[in-house]
Design goal:
The complex is a heterodimer of chains A (321) and B (316).
Chain A: H1 5-9, E1 17-20, H2 26-31, E2 37-40, H3 46-51, E3 54-57, H4 65-69, E4 76-79, H5 89-95, E5 98-100, H6 103-122, H7 125-133, H8 136-140, E6 153-157, H9 161-171, E7 176-180, E8 191-192, H10 196-201, E9 205-208, H11 222-228, E10 233-236, H12 245-254, E11 259-262, E12 281-283, H13 292-310
Parallel strand pairs in A: 1-2, 1-3, 3-4, 4-5, 6-7, 6-9, 7-8, 9-10, 10-11, 11-12
Chain B: E1 5-8, H1 14-23, E2 25-28, H2 37-44, E3 48-52, H3 61-66, E4 72-74, H4 85-91, E5 94-96, H5 103-119, H6 121-129, H7 132-136, E6 150-153, H8 157-167, E7 173-176, E8 187-188, H9 192-197, E9 201-204, H10 218-224, E10 229-232, H11 241-250, E11 255-258, H12 269-272, E12 277-279, H13 288-307
Parallel strand pairs in B: 1-2, 1-3, 3-4, 4-5, 6-7, 6-9, 7-8, 9-10, 10-11, 11-12
Helix pairs in contact in B: 1-13, 5-8
The chains are: A alpha/beta (321), B alpha/beta (316).
Amino acid sequence: MAPSPSAAAGADAGKPLVILPGPLFPELAAGLDGRFRFVLAADADEGTAAEARAVLVAALAPVSADLLGRLPKLELVVATSAGVDHIDHAACRRRGIRVTNTSEVFAPDVADYAVGLVVAVLRRVAAAEAYLRRGRWAADGDYPPATKVSGKRVGIVGLGSIGGLVARRLAAFGCVIAYNSRSPKPSAPYKFYSSVRELAEESDVLVLCCALTEETRRMVNREVMEALGKDGVLVNVGRGGLVDEAELVRCLREGVVGGAGLDVYVNEPAVPPELFGMDNVVLSDHRAVITPESIQGVIDVVKANLDAFFSGKPLISQVQL
Amino acid sequence: MESLGVLLVAPMNAYLEQELDRRCRLFRLWESPADRRDEFLRAHAASIRAVVPYAPHGVDAAMIDALPSLEIVSSFSVGIDRVDLAACRARGIRVTNTPDVLTDDVADLAVGLAIAALRKIPQADRYVRAGLWKSKGDFTLTTRFSGKRVGIIGLGRIGLAVAKRVEAFDCPVNYYQRTKQEHPSYTYYPSVVELAASSDVLVVACPLNEHTRHIVNREVMEALGPKGVLINIGRGPHVDEAAMVAALIDGRLGGAGLDVFEDEPNVPEALFGMDNVVLVPHVGSATHETRTAMADLVLGNLEAHVAGKPLLTQVV
């Protein structure tokens, strides 16, 4: 399914041109088959680059100022992800290039995983599982009591489509929800904190669901972790860069924070090896977003955004940069 | 209640043990060797007026016979299937349990296990810890939890708490119970097989008794099907464990999240090698917060009994 310049010149002639910074994953390629003329950025000659109006970014392939500079007529960048931190915001803003994402599509899966991590960390599900599978229940007796989920104060950083669903789900567990975001949301029935440190101070669990931007990079630093406290739990389903990772490892080791559920890391797929021996953390491989259901949703949203753009209609999921 | 002789059948909670020791005359059954417990009971039979058992260590007819002064069994659990209720009734011995205080914990774990089983959370954790993300790439794709049809066997306190939680995930709720009660937003099925056939996730949340032993049998598991997931936070004997292991091996059942087993603490070894199951060692109510609340309820029942006041949570 890899696009090639020869195909572009042949059967695809007349179809809207879309530049790809990296190859499409098979399901997406199959889902969009026959509708567009795809050209890999690396294969695009100057003439092709000069006429391109749209870019489609599979997964988290970087869209640098360099690449954008090669595409003088570019108007649209379609992302297949919820977060768009891999796309150069400043360059897009300057040139009025619009960016679309898929966070609505991913929201239920990310929110489910975030709740799964909250329960797994507080109730020690992964550690209790390992205890049982090693035969220790029969040999060494009951697994020690863990921490209750119901009634905990949960602070959500970023009350967008994902954060909103996390809030709704954990409220049904009897948790008390508060949040931090760029500005208060008048429609949200939860308490707003203007700083993450204050939110951490008032929370037993802090869930990171916000976008990674220059303002949010390393927003969870030592001060925030100290405010969360020794019984506090950090869950990150946003981006690794939201957390000072080295400091998090230190805080977990020193007992400054009580535990963590982490789906994302600073240098994926590298995970700080110190975490591997800790039974108060639950780790995963940046997979909260991905299920067959969400992949189908991505295909639908990408298709709808591209179709809307090329027929001059309003975009489905434009991001405010 | 300094004069109340209380037999604690096993170590179950440090706070409970400390308070019983402080407030009563405490006898610790486990301190005598297993082959000399009859002797131990005989020696203290005149003094023991109360027994505190918990889920895996109950009170059988033999123990009741051995304790002629027994007045009350105050169980450190909500389930009292290991207490011989008939023998208690016959002797006029009162029985209390610890309902309500553990409802949230068990429901939290039930939903946590359902998400963990569908999204393979412990499996992904093992994968990352083994360094496989870096060396072999992403872990396997898993199914969405939101929107799945959740079937609940037994819409009592725990079942309703599970229903309330999964509603927030936009999961349609189906249920079965022996005596139908109206729940306008949930769909009733008159049999467990029909419930399983119409559900993606089946949660066992009913009490264990002669009607519910092996309520999840081969036929039910086949109705749940190769994509279905069984969650048991009730009691091990609710499920025909051998049939479940066979169904999981053959792929007739998709997966399971299990907190309870038929012969605890023994778990069928065949499950240890499976990647489509999440197994935890009967930790449904195992949180510091809830264990303290359960201990306070056991103590409160014993105090009410001694003071001649109504018991807080009387079963018999």
